[in-house]
Amino acid sequence: MKLSGELESFSARLGHRFSRPELLVRAVTHPSMSSPHRDNNQRLEFLGDRVLGLVMSEALFLADKTASEGVLAPRFNALVRKETCAAVARELDIGAVLKLGRSEQKSGGRRKEALLGDAMEAVIAAVYLDAGFDVARATILRLWGERINSVEEDARDAKTALQEWAQGRGQTPPKYVEVGRDGPDHQPIFTIEVQLESGEAERSTAGSKRQAEQAAAKSLLAKVSS
User: How is residue 168 annotated by DSSP?
Assistant: First the structure.
């Protein structure tokens, strides 16, 4: 099987040349494009999630030999969560090569965070099946790169930290208010304001309420802690 020009370019960005190109084709085929004669990437996503988890568990275990399970767990979650997988997928421009059904294309599927994250996990599985664990591990560590070294900061849950800061000063928990929503229904952009009882507030905008809340909390925490 010969890859299309777009998939050849993607393979180069990924840094892996497939001996079984059909694995990559399956990895970028969304269920909306599946048929009795065309496999989709759901099974690969399942496997890739586990491969990614093992690689990150090992990397964190070896990087900090004194960290307890309670310290390692949030770091692990930060590295394997869907948002991180989607961020790596965007860097590789997976969206440009995804095979989507018409309805998914119209609804902005090439930019959806969950869809991109799933595809990234499927691509990991494709590399693993094509070349084995050592190659998959090297690929993952290269693609995640500096994220692994800076994970302690990323692993900090800003909403929890801000709530602890407020309660430690006798204040009620922070309040999160949706102050804006733009964009089409299939791809809304949320603006969230977080407010402290003492009057300080910060706003942030993102493609999901959760992301906007976390970003706003992080900004406000930095403001009140400075």
Answer: T
Single-letter residue type at 135: V
For residue 9, what are the contacts with CB-CB under 8 A and spacing of at least 6?
Answer: none
Domain ranges of the chain: 5-154, 158-225
Domain 5-154 has CATH 3.30.420.40: no
**Catalytic pick among 45, 49, 193, 213:** 49
Q: Which pLDDT belongs to residue 101?
A: 86
Give 214's pLDDT tier (boundaries 50, 70, 90): confident
pTM of the full structure: 0.73
The question of whether 130 is a catalytic residue gets the answer no
Angle between helices 82-92 and 133-144 (to 10 degrees): 90
**DSSP of 36-83, one letter per residue?**
TTB--SHHHHHHHHHHHHHHHHHHHHHH-TT--HHHHHHHHHHHHSHH
Give the separation between CA 143 and CA 140, rounded to whole angstroms: 5
Of the residues 121, 193, 202, 213, which is catalytic? 121
Measured in Å, how far apart are the chain's first and last C-alpha atoms?
58
pLDDT digits (tens, 9 = 90+) for 117-157: 999 999 999 999 999 999 999 999 999 998 998 887 556 67
Residues composing the chain: 226
Closest CA to 115 of 31, 207, 190, 10: 31
User: Which one of 3.30.160.20, 1.10.10.10, 3.40.50.720, 3.40.50.1000 gives the CATH number of domain 158-225?
Assistant: 3.30.160.20
Task: Let me know if 121 is a catalytic residue.
Answer: yes
